[in-house]
Design brief:
Blueprint lengths: L1 E2 L13 E6 L19 H16 L7 E2 L11 H9 L1 E8 L1 H5 L1 H13 L6 E5 L19 E2 L1 E3 L7 E3 L5 H26 L22 E3 L7 H13 L4 E2 L8 H11 L5 E5 L15 H11 L3 E6 L11 H7 L4 E3 L2 H12 L13 E5 L5 H13 L3 E3 L9 H11 L2 E6 L4 H21 L6 E6 L15 E5 L7 H9 L2
């Protein structure tokens, strides 16, 4: 339900309004890149889509949203409008240069903060960025703002509000709707336990699954905000606790203090890296990206950094940032593979195992050696051991799937029959070694590794050396004794 002007409402949070939309009226006539609804302004379209997403995510509950369409003239009843602000549970500011300059938007913000000092009830989006030298009034200046604009670089450096018909716009709408839904449900829960015990403990996100390692999501440059949101959604599916719960403070000193506080074992620090060095305030000359990595390493935590495999390092002008992009903790791989590996790392290290038949073996074979691999799979099954192999040979995503299997398996058996030596060398020396190094640091090494070699004899060596690798020289007819040694190593 959207309440206009003097309309009355009764919100599902127990307030007159669940949400108050604060905006500058000029932004409701802004020109967008596409034609969404003729005659309908940008903010109105934003509101309509947000309301629909909220109803869907709230399971049909209809929040009361106050949205003043009348505009403020000289004789407008400002006091009435500010009263509506004070009787709203949540406040959504639609930031822009006009918003930062208008007196009445600042008065709305101040009225809400005075009536509800809880910063968790304040939300902000931005339909256009501020001009250089401009700032928002506090506390909006320190608030993380969901960016609804973009620059079409290198074609143009001019910022344009997001087209409401684009898929990216809808994704951001649902990101905001999910945050608002959580805030609404929390307010409803608090209202339902007013008469309960005077003291209660509020569990951190994911606390109900305390065996999972928490993930600290490092602050990123603006171009990676969408990737962080994607990662949050993915981790939430597995109930993995994340820090921060919402956003880091924007002020450098406050951010550093909050980040240090989060660096507690057994957390995993995750940092997404792009081509830009990011902010380097005077108090942090090395830049916030490098500072976060250094702080996490100094705290002795597991660090997982990611960059896109197609990022051309030659285009990165800053030498210090280049070193960060090529550091030992960086995984240059597909994002889906990185996410899967992170989930595997967040799961607790297995306890001491008394038997081999609770292991999962990945049989790594190329398409020319599938028949041999299937024999190995059957042999392992006969011994009560689960195993798998890839069957999507030649697909563009094969390397991402390969690394995911390395992450999730307890042991690996490579098949070297008719396989191409160079391809197998690349799988082991690049894909496997990177995951193997990461798993060792995280205290979950592979339980057994084997190279299963079949005729023809006299094949060249692979040019890689792996500690504790069991080499199995097999014939076409039978499984050698060395294969049983591999099986025993699984226990």
């Amino acid at each position: 339900m959207v309440v206009d002007g003097d309309g009355k409402s009764s919100g599902i949070t127990g307030n007159r309004h669940d949400i108050f939309i604060s905006y500058a009226s000029v932004d409701d006539t802004a020109i967008t890149a596409g034609s969404h609804m003729p005659g309908v302004g940008w903010v109105t379209t934003f509101l309509n889509k947000l309301q629909a997403a909220l109803i869907q995510r709230l399971g049909g509950d209809r929040p009361a949203i106050y949205f003043d369409r009348s505009g403020l003239g000289p004789n407008h009843q400002v006091d009435r409008l500010l009263d509506e602000v004070r009787h709203s549970a949540l406040f959504v500011a639609v930031g822009s240069p006009a918003y930062a300059r208008r007196d009445f938007t600042q008065r709305e913000l101040q009225a809400f903060v005075a009536s509800s000092p809880d910063p968790e009830r304040l939300f902000a989006v931005e339909c256009l960025p501020l001009d250089e030298g401009e700032t928002y009034p506090d506390p909006l200046a320190k608030q993380k703002r969901l960016q609804f604009w973009a620059r079409n670089e290198p074609v143009s450096t001019v910022a344009v509000s997001d087209d409401p018909t684009s898929p990216g716009f809808l994704q951001k709408i649902h990101d905001l709707a999910e945050q608002l839904k959580r805030a609404i449900r929390e307010l409803q829960a608090k209202a339902s336990v007013v008469a309960a015990s005077p003291a209660r403990t509020v569990a951190a996100p994911g606390a109900r699954n305390g065996s999972l390692r928490p993930v600290v999501l490092a602050r990123v440059t603006d171009d990676l905000d969408d990737s962080v949101a994607d990662l949050r959604r993915y981790l939430a599916q597995y109930d993995i606790p994340m820090m921060p719960e919402d956003d880091w403070p924007l002020e450098p000193g406050e951010f550093q203090a909050a980040f240090r506080q989060a660096l507690v074992q057994p957390a995993i620090v995750v940092q997404l890296l792009g081509p830009y060095r990011g902010k380097a305030p005077k108090s942090v000359p090395e830049g916030l990206l490098a500072w976060q990595h250094n702080a996490a390493v100094a705290a002795g935590l597991t660090v997982r950094q990611w960059r896109h495999p197609k990022l051309d390092l030659a285009t990165v002008a800053d030498a210090e940032h280049q070193r960060l992009l090529t550091g030992p903790d960086v995984l240059a791989e597909g994002f889906e593979s990185f996410k899967a590996g992170l989930v595997a790392a967040a799961k607790p290290a297995p306890a001491a195992r008394a038997a081999a038949n609770d292991a999962v073996v990945f049989v790594d074979a190329q398409d020319c050696d599938v028949a041999i691999a299937e024999r190995v799979l059957q042999r392992l099954a006969d011994k009560g051991i689960d195993s798998s192999m890839l069957t999507e040979f030649g697909e563009p995503s094969i390397r991402a799937k390969l690394r995911e299997r390395y992450e999730l398996s307890d042991a690996v058996c490579w098949i070297y029959g008719e396989a191409d030596r160079n391809t197998l060398n690349g799988r082991i020396s690049v894909d496997f070694q990177r995951i193997n190094k990461m798993r060792k640091r995280e205290g979950r090494p592979f339980r057994a590794l084997a190279l299963y070699k079949t005729p023809p004899p006299g094949k060249p060596g692979l040019g890689v050396a792996i500690a504790n690798l069991i080499e199995i020289e097999a014939s076409d007819a039978e499984f050698p004794a060395a294969f049983d040694l591999f099986v025993e190593s699984l226990g």
